[in-house]
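Input/output pair, single chain:
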Amino acid sequence: MNIHSVVPVSLTGGTPIVPEWTPGEASEGWRETEYRSFASADGRLFGGGWEGEPGTLRLDPYPYDEICVMISGRVALVDTEGGRREFGAGEVFFVPRGFRGVWETLEPSKKFFFAYQGA
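Output:
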């Protein structure tokens, strides 16, 4: 490998991906876009930038381990027992694969993300 294998990660660089959710998973008006800057050869490790508008997304279960680095805005995670944590600009958090609950985007938000799907 050489310097050409080193990839910059940015908020809007990379391949834009707009996930499609089944009815009932996302609230009306939920909008998000991932900008995948990189993916490992096997596709299990990937990351880039993300932006989302206010709304909620039911996670049952969360599909991968993810590290989130909030750049702007505010989000909350609410588990199935009602536990709640909010995160804003400058905060970093980890969401484990298998988490069950709701992702709530409280205001327009941007983050960097690094995800691992595992075997």
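The chain has a mean pLDDT of 93. The first strand starts at residue 15 and ends at 17.
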